[in-house]
Amino acid sequence: MARPGLFRSIFGRVTLSALLVSLLSTLALFLVVRQIVENDGRAMLAREVDTDLAGLADIYVSGGSDELKARIADRFVVHRQDGERVWYLLADDAGRPIAGNLRRWPEIAPEVSEARFVPLPDGERMFARATRLGPGMRLVVGRSDYRGQGLLARLAMAFATAGALIAGLSLVAGHFAARRLRSRVEAVNATFAAVRAGHIEARVPGAGDSDELTELAANTNAMLDQVERLIEAQRAVSDQTAHEIRTPLMHLDTRILKAMEATGDDLLLRTLDQSRDEIRGVVRLLDSLLDIAGTQAMRGDMRGLAEINLSEIAENLGDLYGASAEELGIGFHARIAPGVTLRADAMQMMRLMSNLLDNGFKYVPCGGSVSLELSDGPHIVVQDDGPGIPASDRERVFERYVRLDDSAGGGHGLGLSLALAIAQRHGLSLHVEDAAPGARFVVQPEEGS
């Protein structure tokens, strides 16, 4: 049996689920850490900007605007070791620059001492706070966030690397775990396949661990043990039933025969002869029922079967039925491919084909024709040009005791039932088609076998 694809296999889905969970967990952790780092970085920038702004406000209060402009200019001279940039703008109420390195007032409200990230014309952004120093004077102080952005970039790289590592480890661990589980499940499936192929003695090997799959293996073996016991019991009951019923009937037939030899009464002889015919009919019925039951019980059981040459069996049947067809005035045609073989019971396969041929000869009138065809597969076709079988009855004809036309002769309606049981025992299917006119019985390997 072909293995299912990755997304159809439960083990593949479990592995992919574990991978997805690990990746989502890593992503969620990264988002949480990133938010914490962003909040801490913003708080640090706010403290730094607020400290600088408070100092400049004190300078303005104590020294006036000229002193404030001088201190702002001094700040541009200082070289920052961390590489961060600073921005200042001292402006009047109309936003016209008085001092600083900003050309125009950013979109930030000094009336409420607003603090936030502000985009700059060159595409950069700064964290700034603005305040009103006095009548006609306002000040904004800003800082870049290179350190914070760099930290976030390194954090993203670290989590990406960790995520890739976790994903790889999850895949490897999931692969080995899934492969081990798959091998144990496949052992159970292989056992069922072996039993289905006829090795009823096959059992699941011990899994070793005390887990659910070990319990499954144990239950599977227990079930197969029970099935094997039931099959053996059925065989024993069938054999015993056949012996217990057939033997008294044969003894009764013998006593009737002795009674016939001892009497000269013609009426009594005819009555006794009819009784013997009925006894033989009951024996044949019993044999057919036991054959059907026994064959159905051995469905898929390949023990006792051997490689046989179906072509030889079909050719022998063709010769036999060809001679009978001439006597009945029926045309018979056999097309037998050479070298067709099958692991089967030779007598049962002969009975399968002969039952189908008997059915054809029974319903074909004088002047009609019956054909037997055998090809590789094996593919067996028995076709006649008789009245055919209505579509509504094409499945029912294989049931026990079903006879569509009682006028076609004796019988108990078990021949096709036995043919179906024999076909199924050997992993074959049997169905009937419309031959237009007549019926076509087709035997071929079951689907999936």
UniProtKB/TrEMBL annotation:
<protein>
    <recommendedName>
        <fullName>histidine kinase</fullName>
        <ecNumber>2.7.13.3</ecNumber>
    </recommendedName>
</protein>
<dbReference type="InterPro" id="IPR036890">
    <property type="entry name" value="HATPase_C_sf"/>
</dbReference>
<dbReference type="InterPro" id="IPR003594">
    <property type="entry name" value="HATPase_dom"/>
</dbReference>
<keyword id="KW-0902">Two-component regulatory system</keyword>
<dbReference type="GO" id="GO:0016301">
    <property type="term" value="F:kinase activity"/>
</dbReference>
<feature type="domain" description="HAMP">
    <location>
        <begin position="179"/>
        <end position="232"/>
    </location>
</feature>
<feature type="transmembrane region" description="Helical">
    <location>
        <begin position="151"/>
        <end position="174"/>
    </location>
</feature>
<dbReference type="InterPro" id="IPR004358">
    <property type="entry name" value="Sig_transdc_His_kin-like_C"/>
</dbReference>
<keyword id="KW-0808">Transferase</keyword>
<dbReference type="Pfam" id="PF02518">
    <property type="entry name" value="HATPase_c"/>
</dbReference>
<dbReference type="InterPro" id="IPR005467">
    <property type="entry name" value="His_kinase_dom"/>
</dbReference>
<dbReference type="InterPro" id="IPR036097">
    <property type="entry name" value="HisK_dim/P_sf"/>
</dbReference>
<dbReference type="InterPro" id="IPR003660">
    <property type="entry name" value="HAMP_dom"/>
</dbReference>
<keyword id="KW-0597">Phosphoprotein</keyword>
<keyword id="KW-0472">Membrane</keyword>
<keyword id="KW-0812">Transmembrane</keyword>
<keyword id="KW-1133">Transmembrane helix</keyword>
<feature type="domain" description="Histidine kinase">
    <location>
        <begin position="240"/>
        <end position="449"/>
    </location>
</feature>
<keyword id="KW-0418">Kinase</keyword>
<dbReference type="InterPro" id="IPR050428">
    <property type="entry name" value="TCS_sensor_his_kinase"/>
</dbReference>
